[in-house]
Structure formats: structure tokens, C-alpha cells
Design a protein that fits this description.
Largest sheet: 5 strands, mixed
Radius of gyration: 44 Å
Helix content: 55-70%
Distance between the termini: 69 Å
Structural class: alpha+beta
Strand content: 5-15%
Number of strands: 5
Order of helices and strands: HHHHHHHHEHEEHEEH
Number of helices: 11
Length: 397
């Protein structure tokens, strides 16, 4: 199958045309590089030098499309040009072919051509000098170096600068891409954190409002309805307060908002009292000592979400909240009676367990939730182990 010839670039076509026209102009006025009476001019006359000129001009069309092929054909044409009176245009175009072969050719050729031309230049200087013992013989090596080694080394320098610029541009693009990925991950993490905080802060109060409003609507008892409305109002006020704290987190520094207070384990008693006011029978057994702030927040939110789930799903009975500070971790457990009901007393999004699991994972802890058998029947148990050693070391560093 025939291989299609590479298509020359427009600029290369202009270079070839300019070289050819320049050579024809020099030929027309009779200007050559050597006199006709030199002994090694085998093809005397003006016409033979047009053949190498035309070949080298044609090779200029390949200076970027096929630089090695252009250089090889150009070298043969230059050798033929030395057997004629010669043309300055042929020499100039050949130097451009040498330059283009290093600049646009494969990397292996770009490394080898300067070495080869450098060795040829040295050999062209030393061999004639050793044979003729004339200082003028060294000028042959100089001429070979000017025609071959000079353009090749120039092309290598330009190529190295271009590759360095391309590498710097690639590093800049990669840095920008990594920065964009980091920004996207940071935004995603912040959105997830906001979702967890919003769910844990508001879901408890809204669940209590939904349950007690259902009771007030279903029971035709003024006393019960009044008590339910009182609980609804209390949870509405507390939910609004929690929402304002969340807004304070999002708008930190605003003049019309107080700084948002982060819940601590010392607030568990108030949290349990609120759950009792909503109708849960809760027992708190907490011994935790000194715990890092991130662990405190995670444990508080887990207990809060567990009590919310107990309010919506648990059967009648005692809900137990248990916390213990171990040597290197804080253990959290919340158990509530389980009767296998499918429909909750208040609608939920199902994001509570996901948020608790995410909080544990962020602290390199463990989390599990499921049904277990207890002495009084089945229990829904939430357990989490939150390491405190790594957190403390990270804070100290």
C-alpha cells in the first residue's frame, strides 16, 4: 500500500519559494561560491548548479512534515553542489534543513545530530590538516561546522527551551486542575457538613412537632391538645434557635448575629430533658472526662439523632444513652425498644444514619446500628467508637 506524502505547511512553501527565487537571482547574475577553474569542480558551467538548488528547495517543503527525509535528501544535494560552482542559496537552505531536523524531528534525532555534526566538523578540520600540513586546512572544519554543527546546536537550544516551556505550561495546567479538584472536594465536604448539621439540629424538634400535632388533631381532649400545643411551641422556639445558630455558622462575623455555640457533651442533660418533655423515657449514663471538641460534637449529634429516631420509631419503653471514655476512644451507645413497625410516627428522610456514619468515618471511628435481642425483647442499638488519641495529637501539632 502506497504511503501518502506528508502535506507541507504554508510557511514552509514560502520558505522554499523564497530560497529558490533567491538562488535563481544569484545564478542569473553569475554569483557562485567557487571559481570555475578549481580542480574539484567536476561540472563546469552555470547550469549544473541548478539541480542541487532545486532539490534543496524541494526539501524545504518537508522541513516540518518530514524533517529527517528532507535533511537526508538535502545532504545528498549539498554533496552534489560541492562538485559544481556552488550556490549560496543552496548552503543557506541546507542550514535551515539542519536546524529544522533538530527542532521538529524525533527526540532521538535531535540528540544525535548535534553530536554527529560536531564530530564531522572536528574530523573535517583535523584530517586535511594532517594530510596537507597547512593551517588553512583547518578552515574546512570551520566551514563544515558553520553549515552543520551551528544550525544543529541552535535547533537543539530552541527545542530545549520549547520543551521546558511546554513542561511548565503542563505543570501549570495540572496545578490548576488539582486546585479545582480541591475546591470541588472542599465545597462537597462543606455541603455535606451543612446537611448533617441542619438535619441533626432541626430534625429532632420538627419530629416532635409532627408527632404532637398529630396527637392534638386526633384526640378530642382540650387538656391533651393544650399540652401538645405547649410542646409544639417549645420545640418550635428551640428549632428556630437552632436554625439561627446554623445561620450564624454560615454568616460568621455578621453584626446582627451572635457567634454560634458548638454543642458539648455537657449539654447532654438538657438534650435528654428535652427528649423526656417530648414523651420519651430516657436514662442517661455518661462518664466521659476530657474529650477533644470534634469528638464531643460528633458524639452529641449522634445522641441527638438517636433520640430523634427513637421518638419517631421506638416502641414504648426505656431509651438508654450510654457514654464511656476508654483509654484512646469515646464509646457511645443508644438503645431503644424495637417492635418492628414499618411506618414511623413522623416522616423522615433516612439521612440520619448516613450522617452518623459519616461523622464516625471523619474521625476514623467505627459505627454500627441494628436490631439486637435484649432481656425485655428486641432493641434498636446504635454504637459508635470515636478515637481521641489521633485527634489530640493533631490538635497539638
Amino acid at each position: 500500500m502506497a504511503v501518502p506524502l506528508p502535506r507541507p505547511r504554508r510557511f514552509d512553501a514560502w520558505v522554499a519559494l523564497a530560497g529558490l527565487l533567491g538562488g535563481l537571482l544569484l545564478w542569473g547574475i553569475g554569483l557562485g561560491t567557487r571559481p570555475a577553474d578549481e580542480p574539484y569542480v567536476l561540472f563546469d558551467g552555470r547550469w549544473p548548479l541548478l539541480v542541487p538548488l532545486a532539490v534543496v528547495a524541494g526539501c524545504e517543503l518537508l522541513r516540518r512534515a518530514a524533517p529527517r527525509t528532507g535533511l537526508l535528501l538535502g545532504t545528498l544535494a549539498l554533496v552534489a553542489d560541492t562538485l559544481t560552482r556552488g550556490s549560496i542559496a543552496t548552503l543557506l537552505m541546507y542550514t535551515d534543513l539542519m536546524y529544522a531536523a533538530v527542532l521538529y524531528g524525533p527526540a532521538a534525532s535531535a540528540r544525535r545530530i548535534p553530536w554527529i555534526t560536531g564530530l564531522l566538523s572536528i574530523a573535517a578540520a583535523l584530517v586535511p590538516y594532517a594530510v596537507w600540513r597547512m593551517p588553512e586546512a583547518l578552515l574546512i572544519g570551520v566551514a563544515v561546522g558553520v553549515v552543520s554543527f551551528g544550525p544543529a546546536s541552535t535547533g537543539l537550544i530552541v527545542r530545549n527551551h520549547r520543551e521546558a516551556a511546554d513542561a511548565a505550561r503542563l505543570r501549570a495546567e495540572q496545578t490548576a486542575l488539582l486546585a479545582e479538584m480541591d475546591r470541588t472536594q472542599a465545597v462537597t465536604a462543606e455541603r455535606a457538613r451543612m446537611a448533617r448539621e441542619l438535619h441533626d439540629m432541626v430534625a429532632n424538634h420538627l419530629s416532635a412537632i409532627a408527632i404532637h400535632s398529630t396527637a392534638a388533631l386526633s384526640l378530642d381532649d382540650p387538656v391533651t391538645s393544650r399540652e401538645a400545643l405547649g410542646v409544639i411551641r417549645e420545640n418550635s422556639v428551640e428549632g428556630l434557635s437552632e436554625m439561627r445558630r446554623l445561620i450564624g455558622i454560615l454568616r460568621d462575623g455578621a453584626d446582627d448575629l451572635e457567634p454560634a455555640a458548638t454543642p458539648t457533651l455537657d449539654s447532654l442533660a438538657a438534650l435528654v430533658e428535652g427528649a423526656r418533655a417530648n414523651g420519651l423515657d430516657v436514662t442517661l449514663d455518661a462518664r466521659y472526662g476530657s474529650v477533644p471538641a470534634p469528638v464531643e460534637l460528633a458524639a452529641y449529634r449522634m445522641v441527638q439523632e438517636s433520640l430523634t429516631n427513637a421518638l419517631k420509631h421506638a416502641a414504648r419503653g426505656e431509651v438508654t444513652v450510654w457514654l464511656r471514655r476508654l483509654d484512646d476512644a469515646l464509646a457511645v451507645s443508644v438503645s431503644s425498644p424495637y417492635d418492628g413497625r414499618d411506618a414511623p410516627r413522623a416522616p423522615g428522610s433516612g439521612a440520619g444514619l448516613v450522617g452518623m456514619r459519616e461523622r464516625a468515618a471523619l474521625l476514623n471511628g467505627t459505627f454500627e446500628a441494628g436490631v439486637e435481642s435484649g432481656p425485655d425483647g428486641k432493641l434498636w442499638v446504635v454504637r459508635a467508637t470515636l478515637p481521641v488519641t489521633d485527634i489530640a495529637q493533631g490538635a497539638s501539632e
